[in-house]
Every structure is written in C-alpha cells, then in structure tokens.
Design brief:
The protein is mainly β. It has 3 helices and 22 strands. A hairpin with a 2-residue loop joins strand 17 and strand 18 (313-314). The two termini are 14 Å apart.
Length: 380
C-alpha cells in the first residue's frame, strides 16, 4: 500500500523509539521536496516517507535509503539518476560540489578487460549517451576463481575471499592473473584514483584495500565496507586500520562505541558526502547529470520551524538535516529533517497507554501520533 503524505506541502510522522534498554526518545521525521529552477528552489509535490521499518513484518529492514532512521548524527548527501553525454561519447565527467567539497567521477562507455600475452589490459570504451548511476556501474564485484572456504559457505555473500568488500555489486575486480574472458570494467571511476593496467589484478585477496574505492553518489548498503565493519562483519581479509587505508584518511571510524552500534553506521552516503554540519545557503552544483548538459545548482533551503511537545510540554530537541537526496534529471531535491528529544522520564507504551501524547509541529501545522501505515517497498 502506497503511503499518503501527511500534508500537501510535506510528509511527516511523530513517534517513539528505544535508544537503549529501558530508555525511550520521541522523534519526528519531516520530508520536504523542492523543485530547482533558475530563481532557486520552490516547494513541489511532496515525496512520501519511504520504507516504514516500524512494522515487525517489514522486509529488508536495512534497505538502503529508508527514511525511517532517527539515529543519524550527520547529513548524507545522495545523488540518484544517470550520467549523460549531450552527444554519443566514449568518456565524460560527473561532478558534485557541496560548498568547498567536490567529488569528481570519470565516466566510460562499456569496456571489458582484454588479455594480451596473458596480461590484463583495459579495453577501449564504447559510446554512451546515458548511464545509470549506482554501485552496479562502479568498481567491485567478485572474482569467482578464488576458492570459497567451505566453513564460510553459509555466509559467502560477505565472507568470500574473492569478493571486493567495498562493493560486492560492481564490476572489474580480479584477484588472479590467469586470463578470464568477458569481465566488464566499471563505467564510473574516481577521477583522482583511476584504474590502470597494472592495477587490474590484485594478486593477493588480502590486498583488496589497495584498490580504488567505488565511484558512486548513491546509498551505501549495510553489507559494504566500511558500514559492514561497524556491524561487526569484517571482511575475511581485514584491512590495516591506519593511514594506509583510504577510509581512515577520510575520517571514517572503524571501532565500536560501548555495546551499541557506532552512530556512523547509520550514515549511508560515501565518506566524502557525509557532513557534520550543513548550513542553510550552502551551494550545491551537480554537473554531467542532466540530458541537456546544464548543471543543477541550488542553495540549501532553510529548515522549517519545527517543535516537539510531549504530554503538552515543549521538549528540548536536536534537529538535523538527515539527508539531502538530489535527482538532477527531474530537477528535484528532497530534504529529510529529524527532530529528536532527550530520553523520556517515563516509558510510553502504545496500546497500553490509551493515547501517545506526542505533537510535532511543522511551520505551525500539527502532526499527531498515528499507527504506522502498512509496509511499503516502493522505491524512493
């Protein structure tokens, strides 16, 4: 069943969540969608909150892109769509600028690994006009020639030594040097860390961390490194945890915090696009992501006026822009705001307490507590 938005200008819910055994917080989620035009951004038809995980029977609870996560401590910036060439081309560029931070991606038409006298080399790219962004077009995948440890058969999806831990879904990752035909190369590579002929074959599965990180701007799934490590699911060949590792240089934490999950686990964008603080007015420019070749440029909108009341008393809250999801082809930006209280003085149990006394206001519009909608798996 498709979710119906709470208001004609936004979607929102207010609810309770446990943040530790015996402790509870109140929180609100507010999703506002904007259309980007020449004069800036303006409100457009609101997108509904995606993938309600509050149901016990919701499948794929760690589905990338779920809006129902009140635990983020930073802002994820995500781009969904395609890389476009204004005319058929074999190569191109994509770039996303957020303030003074820039991610540049080299784009290639379809390529395969070629073999010359037993040595791997990068084949020439075919022409393209539009290529879907995503992990499938980025560097990664699995070398099926690497033997699977029989003791790991049940967990081969994460424990296979031939798997590229940063991106199990990509293409181009090879361990062995023996020729194998038909291996596709990635369409997207980080512009400052390109593949070369001598980097195509890793040689030793324990050296995977030396390879390029996958170039994409979308959601990082929970079973991809480094998020997987924060779940306790380390690759079968763990990387060094010092400055030799790219993720460490980018400030990604790899250790645990107490007995719970590290807050960074909940961040779903690539490390370059996780922001501790994004101020209203921060400029965004996306290039190479629209059919007509024009950049998509906008400034981050102001937050709405948000407040949260518990049993009639206004609560002290933290407010964070949880995600900024950009769809350049459609010219839209969806902002998800999270309003989060301190732990409550007493636990409220829906179904036992007659009424859950929560009130979220969004620019003066009241949102009261309501049971969650039936599970929905529709794409964001």
């Amino acid at each position: 069943m498709k979710r119906v938005t709470a208001h004609e200008r936004f979607d929102a819910i207010v609810d309770l969540a446990g943040d530790a055994p015996g402790r509870q917080i109140a929180y609100g989620l507010v999703k506002i969608t904007y259309e980007v035009g020449e004069g800036g951004v303006r409100l457009t038809t609101p997108q509904p909150l995606f993938h309600d995980t509050r149901h016990a029977d919701t499948k794929h609870r760690l589905l990338p892109g779920s809006d129902f996560c009140p635990w983020k401590s930073a802002t994820d910036v995500i781009v969904l769509g395609k890389a476009f060439a204004t005319r058929p081309s074999t190569t191109g560029r994509v770039a996303l600028e957020v303030g003074d931070r820039v991610v540049r991606i080299a784009v290639f038409g379809r390529r395969v690994i070629e073999w010359e006298r037993g040595r791997a080399r990068i084949g020439g790219p075919a022409a393209y006009e539009a290529l879907p962004l995503g992990l499938g077009g980025a560097y990664g995948g699995v070398d099926p020639r690497v033997p699977l440890d029989p003791s790991h058969a049940a967990t081969a999806a994460i424990d296979h030594r031939g798997l590229y831990p940063r991106n199990p879904f990509g293409s181009g990752y090879l361990v062995g040097h023996d020729p194998i035909e038909g291996i596709a190369l990635p369409s997207f590579e980080l512009a400052d860390d390109l593949l070369t002929d001598d980097r195509l074959c890793v040689g030793d599965p324990s050296h995977w961390w030396r390879q390029p990180r996958p170039a994409h701007l979308g959601f990082v799934p929970a079973n991809a490194f480094p998020r997987s490590a924060l779940l306790g699911a380390w690759p079968p060949e763990p990387p060094p945890q010092d400055e030799r590792l790219d993720e460490r240089r980018l400030g990604v934490p790899l250790g645990a915090v107490g007995s719970g999950l590290h807050p960074y686990f909940f961040q779903e964008s690539v490390p370059e696009l996780v922001f501790a603080s994004l101020r209203p007015g921060t400029p965004f420019i996306a290039r190479g992501l629209r059919p007509d070749g024009r950049p998509l440029a906008f400034a981050l909108p102001e937050a709405p006026d948000l407040s949260l009341s518990i049993a009639g008393e206004r609560a002290a809250v933290d407010i964070i822009a949880s995600s900024v999801v950009i769809a350049p082809e459609h010219g839209t930006v969806a902002l998800l705001w999270v309003v989060r209280s301190a732990p409550l003085r007493r636990v409220i149990i829906p179904g036992i307490h007659r009424k859950v006394p929560l009130l979220l206001t969004v620019d003066g519009v009241p949102i009261t507590h309501a049971p969650p909608d039936p599970p929905s798996m529709e794409a964001p």
